[in-house]
Design goal:
two-stranded antiparallel ribbon; about 300 residues; 6-stranded mixed β-sheet
């Protein structure tokens, strides 16, 4: 039996995200994520302007006038949500933690997928793969996915995205939309993505359509003026003392964090991966809308 407060939280997320899906994103999702290819649909009579390469010569010979083959897009896709559940995701300086925002983004994308009759799967990772839910369709399945993103209790606190990508490549044989939702913070990295992770991202993007969603909190980008602070790293347990009274120190911290964020976005672009940057203190619907619009324009140009 699922506790009532958990059901209430999941229902709240469903209501909020369903409105965004209905009003904005479902149609955009359909147009920017393409199917596996084209399937034969039917043969019809040739009309002026049709591509002569589509002529079915066997039917044309039998009927004594031209017919063409008509194809339709093989629409069904799989959306794989690859979600970071490491210790740093529990941080949030406002009403919402990074983990809670990750659940909302997962919900928006998952409900968009099932409205297009696509399957949704889930990989939760820390510095190992913590849970795998194979792709399926349907509302009840999506609600389970949301519950796991919100309330799953990982065994470990660290982050290793490469391990999650290696697992994705093993379990997902056909091309999928792979959305990585993470803060991309790791004790193994000083800011930029490690070389071996960049290689894994490129390999994954050659097989799948990889999209990164980077979630940060305001106070990971700019320090509050609170004097001396003693902080504990949520993933390593390391203790750090900071003096936030100094305006110079706060400015240097903000500059360093913004540079790191920009460097990560640059590395995603270099790997051919679309990325979205979100903050827990800002509405996400506009950023998602811009992402879909950008992909749609690029698809039309191509």
């Amino acid at each position: 039996m699922i506790p009532r407060e958990i059901l209430k939280k999941i229902r709240q997320i469903e209501l909020r995200t369903n409105r965004i899906v209905t009003e904005t994103l479902a149609g955009q999702y359909h147009s920017v994520f393409k199917g596996q290819g084209m399937n034969f649909d039917e043969v019809r009579e040739y009309q002026p302007g049709d591509d002569v390469r589509a002529i079915d010569w066997n039917v044309t010979a039998r009927m004594n006038h031209p017919f063409i083959k008509k194809f339709v897009e093989e629409r069904e896709l799989t959306l794989m949500l690859v979600v970071d559940v490491s210790g740093s995701g529990l941080f949030g300086s406002r009403d919402q933690s990074k983990r809670e925002l990750a659940a909302e983004i997962a919900s928006v994308l998952a409900f968009s997928a099932i409205r297009n009759n696509d399957k949704v799967g889930l990989i939760l990772f820390s510095d190992e793969v913590e849970k795998f839910i194979p792709p399926r369709k349907g509302r009840s399945h999506v609600l389970r996915v949301i519950r796991e993103v919100l309330f799953f209790e990982p065994m470990r606190r660290g982050t290793d995205l490469k391990t999650a990508l290696d697992f994705l490549m093993r379990v997902q044989s056909h091309k999928a939309i792979a959305v990585i939702i993470s803060d991309f913070l790791s004790s193994k990295s000083s800011g930029a993505l490690p070389k071996e992770l960049q290689t894994s991202l490129r390999m994954a993007n050659r097989k799948h359509d990889v999209v990164s969603v980077q979630i940060t909190d305001r106070h990971e980008l700019e320090l509050p003026k609170l004097g001396r602070l003693i902080l504990e790293d949520a993933e390593t347990g390391e203790i750090l003392e900071l003096n936030t009274a100094s305006a110079g120190s706060r400015a240097a911290f903000a500059l360093r964090q913004e540079k790191m964020r920009g460097e990560i976005a640059k590395q995603f672009r270099s790997a051919g991966i679309d990325s979205i940057q979100l903050r827990t203190d800002e509405a996400y619907s506009a950023a998602l809308g811009r992402f879909f619009e950008t992909r749609e324009k690029r698809r039309l140009r191509g």
